[in-house]
Amino acid sequence: xxxxxxxxxxxxxxxxxxxxxxxxxxxxxxxxxxxxxxxxxxxxxxxxxxxxxxxxxxxxxxxxxxxxxxxxxxxxxxxxxxxxxxxxxxxxxxxxxxxxxxxxxxxxxxxxxxxxxxxxxxxxxxxxxxxxxxxxxxxxxxxxxxxxxxxxxxxxxxxxxxxxxxxxxxxxxxxxxxxxxxxxxxxxxxxxxxxxxxxxxxxxxxxxxxxxxxxxxxxxxxxxxxxxxxxxxxxxxxxxxxxxxxxxxxxxxxxxxxxxxxxxxxxxxxxxxxxxxxxxxxxxxxxxxxxxxxxxxxxxxxxxxxxxxxxxxxxxxxxxxxxxxxxxxxxxxxxxxxxxxxxxxxxxxxxxxxxxxxxxxxxxxxxxxxxxxxxxxxxxxxxxxxxxxxxxxxxxxxxxxxxxxxxxxxxxxxxxxxxxxxxxxxxxxxxxxxxxxxxxxxxxxxxxxxxxxxxxxxxxxxxxxxxxxxxxxxxxxxxxxxxxxxxxxxxxxxx
Length: 495
Description:
Layout: E1 9-14, H1 21-37, E2 42-44, H2 52-64, E3 69-74, H3 80-89, E4 94-99, H4 114-127, E5 139-140, H5 142-163, E6 165-171, H6 185-189, E7 193-198, H7 199-208, H8 215-230, H9 237-254, E8 260-265, H10 270-275, H11 280-287, E9 293-294, H12 299-312, E10 316-323, H13 327-333, E11 345-350, E12 359-366, H14 368-374, E13 384-391, E14 394-403, E15 409-418, E16 428-433, H15 437-446, E17 453-457, H16 462-471, E18 476-479
Parallel strand pairs: 1-2, 1-3, 3-4, 4-5, 6-7, 6-8, 8-9, 13-16, 15-18
Antiparallel strand pairs: 10-11, 10-17, 11-16, 12-13, 14-15, 14-17, 15-16
Helix pairs in contact: 1-5, 2-3, 3-4, 5-12, 5-16, 8-9, 9-11
């Protein structure tokens, strides 16, 4: 995966001057050793922070070591002002955790009172309006804290990624897709830059890449990825390779001061007639490298996909919450085999933008709907270029970060799975199962007016997404509630 940050963790211990400093120092060393034992490298600053000058020195130390994410460790009660100033002066995500007491045999000189110190730390962070991540239960032994450190890494990766992200768009949005239209002001609130371009700009750049010497190598790479079975239109590959180069060069030439890029492109109705193919397969290939290309100029879809890529370190996709599962498919392939009601299931679909590695038997195909509109349902030419196949079964997290028309950010998260059941349909598509999806669909997606696009991460990562949205200050985060736990406004009398 490229285009997502690499996290280098730093660890700084703090100590209140009326406590024994060796308590923090020794506990820090044990903490760092446990992190390394779990396979993650961490830079252990030898400066124990007791005062404000120590805080500045520690921040300089971890920065010099290349750290871009930091754990502040209360080995004892900790100095309230210096420990929180670390978050002020360190340019990156910071997590605060505290040491649990080790033994009932050492509660005189060995008692650290960090449980108490975390309260004062939290108060002082709030007093200074400083952002920091505090785990659900931030006090533990060295081994327990090491597990928290590992959980912090994907969260830190997403925070760093958003800070360095530019979303590049080629629009405007297709007619009647106002659902994906949302004000971009909220993106600046969370530190994301946007560059908006015309579809004509993209076409001009594409034509300038005609005959590019690099096309041949990309064609070979595409053919190797697709294999003999999936490469159904080998003569189409040079056109798509030319487009892939166009996007990659645009990203490189337009990232500016930003380190990471995502795209939100208009892909119909004019695209196939002017470019000579559908862009879906190319979009899938960029997504597999951590460069999401959201369909239909869905800016917040691209944002959500990038977040998912940062958190999981794995390709993601963007799908329509598309259609119900027919009862005969449910009864034949799901009922009695999986613990889901019919209304817990739905089909997630898009034309063909899901990465090859996330599909079963993926292959190049043509966009049936566009073929009807643009080629009168005849032999496909310009509507070729989708990557189709059933989405591979396994755990997923369906989520979206979105802004309301009045620019208030909101989000939803739901964990579930893709079932190993044939869809009997077209596109990049899968049968998804999420507990109590029917109620979630009505009382979150419809009631809160979310668009039909949702980002899909191919693992259960809701806990980290929740922590990220909380860190970003998003107050309205919805999830799929269990049966009996009513949503606001849900009719309690429906049987």
